[in-house]
Design a protein that fits this description.
mainly alpha
Amino acid sequence: MSDASARVADSSGNWVDTLAPQWARPYLRLSRFDRPIGSWLLLMPCWWSAALASGMAHDVRRLPLTIVLFFIGAFAMRGAGCAWNDITDRDLDARVERTRSRPLPAGQITVKQATAFMVALALVGLLVLLRFNRFAIATGVASLLVVAIYPFMKRVTWWPQVFLGLAFSWGALMGFAVTFGRIDLTALVLYAGSIAWVIGYDTIYAHQDSEDDALIGVKSTARLFGAHTQQALILFYGLAVMLIGVALASGDVRWPAWLGLAAFAAHLASQIARLKIEDPELCKRLFYSNKHAGLLLFAGLLADAAMRAA
């Protein structure tokens, strides 16, 4: 087994490298706690739906606790999902420059150890789910099917980002399941808008690996769109803003939510304008910036919920 202190190529100099005990570093890297952007992006639709549903209910008394529970659940389940992804992709990761230093292909931990850690994180997610109503619990458990099949999609379809969107946008349903004990049309439209957003930002992310992916036969929308990526982003980001806007209108929101959506849209437009697909470092920065785009929309929805509950 290789040195557990060895760093991951595309994530170094972070708190895991400098502060975490050496024995824990491979597990923290496996779950991406050293670079939690994926957890934040998983969390955003959860927070959007919680705020929108609370505003529609004109009741924010449970919203602070729901926000905290969604935060814990998103980080735990993102960690479990990354572990599953790395277990299934360990042979492919060993052939890609950016990922070959990850804990499993680098031999820092075994598959059995990674699986045990994945189960532990999933149990944390289950404990969070058990704080909600039965419908919300069932809705959360149903997401595991999409999570389970996602890593295999890049082998069989040019559109694995769609399946990532189905998984990463599930939180858009959870806020309504928790608040109302049901999923209505507003939730479904918000879910669809979030899926379009995920397809857009993960296409940007996938351009970091497009050359290696072509060599090993891995499919992605980055390779599919190629030089036409900006036009594709106009389509998917535009669809995201339109569908989220329809969800907001259906939820009868007030001006703070619309202001948040406008800021979200402006951020996405800036990403498209700045994108250079031949610059992996820029692609990485633009991908990471979607956390801020999501927070801008959440801030508007949170202010709207507080205004309607007053």
